[in-house]
């Protein structure tokens, strides 16, 4: 059976025009004006709505122990929110083979509703680990690793290990994700705060200052420069860190920056909400100042920020965040965001005139696909691309409420916001998985995305 989307306005990262889209066997096979219908065609009338490539979230933490979204609820929420692909982080177990670990994660993802890939988090550097990195890229289609400069005595790696791991990854055609905060100094600041009786959530932000994010961002970029490896700075939250990325780009370095919707829209005053409500907003890096939001939007416009990741971490408030009621250092880090990222960035970006619609498609879909080896199969609407498509009605609106969400958390960080624009259909490889607020996807229909090695394109 063929599917034809008629009467819509097709939007890519570069263009916008009236066109019909023909889909056969999950692939786009024609884009042109007035495609002729056959009697058996499934016809979707887009009725002057936007037809865009499905969004790609390259920063998700589904199925992490202690969180409540597995690949079933997490990818359902993602699809309801216009995402058609995710790259999720694996969680390594110390001493376990990374290839064996990857196999376990592929099992966890079998119930996925949308297509998925993985970044391997690497938190140690032995000969065995160094030998496994090329296999991830050459045999498993996992062409990115993730390193942490924060979370001392947990996943943090030393500068020396970061250098060795980056070098090996670069030689293997991979790109390296880095969480850039100075973990040693953050650890000390947290100890000092607690010893001074500073236990409230706001001290989470005070003990992770922008300077320490900027310092680590520069250090990651400079070490990657010496290791000759492309680097991707995850969740850039502030102007100071972004300036380090911009300086490196001026030097001609291959460095990309991601930000998250919460850094664009929320600020650190949320951490001071009464009755420990501020605990709901604890993430790392922390929410910053209002001026930082302006710098991040400017970075998106200039192209120094390439992507937006959700950094979705489905921690509960009751029984989760509240563990840190008397001590902010015990509050588990992370925010739920996978279901709202598309609508939030559209509203504050396009609707409020901060970015163009083409730029929106670029940061939500095209750039992430290019950087992480999925383009042009994903991230664009061209003949030969997977029919991963969002149909979006800019005239509709909605108020965000946890009552209507599909992610499993007991709160929503965007609760009560009225957002302009609403997704009406989501197609994944041609299957209509969301239609007018109804979820139609079949469990386990998502496929593993075998990604290509890093190239400049
Ligand atoms: Mn992180
Ligand atoms: Mn993360």
**Total helical elements:** 12
CATH class of the largest domain: Alpha Beta
**Low-pLDDT regions:** none
| Helix amount | 25-40%
Tell me which ligands are bound: manganese (II) ion
Secondary-structure-based class equals alpha/beta
Radius of gyration: 21 Å
The CATH topology name of the largest domain reads TIM Barrel
- Average residue-wise pLDDT: 97
Through-space gap between termini: 34 Å
Protein described:
The chain is an alpha/beta fold and 457 residues long. Helix content is 30%, strand content 22%. Helix 4 packs across helix 7 (210-227) and helix 7 packs parallel to helix 8. The two termini are 34 Å apart. The model has no long low-confidence stretch (mean pLDDT 97). The structure holds manganese (II) ion (2 copies).
Short description:
This protein has 457 residues and is an alpha/beta fold. The protein has twelve helices and 17 strands. The protein has two domains: 3-51 and 387-439, Urease, subunit C, domain 1, CATH 2.30.40; 54-371, TIM Barrel (Alpha-Beta Barrel), CATH 3.20.20.
Secondary-structure blueprint:
Layout: E1 2-11, E2 16-24, E3 27-32, E4 42-45, E5 50-53, E6 55-60, H1 71-80, E7 83-89, H2 98-108, E8 115-121, H3 127-139, E9 144-148, H4 159-171, E10 175-179, H5 183-195, H6 202-206, H7 210-227, E11 231-233, H8 239-250, E12 255-259, H9 261-265, H10 290-302, E13 307-308, H11 341-351, H12 357-371, E14 389-399, E15 418-428, E16 431-435, E17 438-439
Parallel strand pairs: 1-4, 1-5, 6-7, 7-8, 8-9, 9-10, 10-11, 11-12, 12-13
Antiparallel strand pairs: 1-2, 2-3, 5-14, 14-15, 15-16, 16-17
Helix pairs in contact: 4-7, 7-8
Bound molecules: manganese (II) ion (2 copies).
One manganese (II) ion (MN) binds at residues 179, 234-235, 284.
